[in-house]
Amino acid sequence: TSVTLVYTAGYQYSKDGKTWQNSAYFDGLSPATTYTFYRRVAETDSTSASAASTGLKVTTDKRSVATPSAPALSSKTDTTVTLKAVSGYQYSKNGTSWQSSPTFTGLSPATTYQFYQRVAETDTAYASATSTALKVTTDKKTVNAPSAPTLSSKTDVSVTLKTVSGCQYSMDGKSWQNSPTFSGLSPATTYKF
Prior knowledge:
By secondary structure, the chain is mainly β. It contains no helices and 14 strands.
């Protein structure tokens, strides 16, 4: 928001060609704005001021903005993560590719990702530096309930169900075991599996 021109003794400087100053330094300017600066030979006791030079166009830099804190989690599933949205921010899961949406899809279940945020670049401000990371582990994948187990064999004190790969077995729906065999049962008693 400032411009310093090359100073030459005996000259005056202006940013509008009307108001003149001895300093070649101009501050209080707006970011990312083009100004036209002029100079002239200053008036002395024996000479009048010269006419203004041709203009020099200078565009001020964009302003810098502070780095935000790490993003906050809004929600997650086994394949999506949604961060809390902040107006004017961008989001990333690798710190290099940015998007305006705080939602990331197509993720793998039970996997830890790092998410970042930054203030997006505007016409008058540069993008901020990247925030620190928020680590989020996606949920485990949900699966549909299998069909009811089927009986493989039984005795007076044991029941063996047909084995299904990847399934666990229970008599009460609360305590689960990997084995499809239940022993130590009472004879002539009905059980639910």
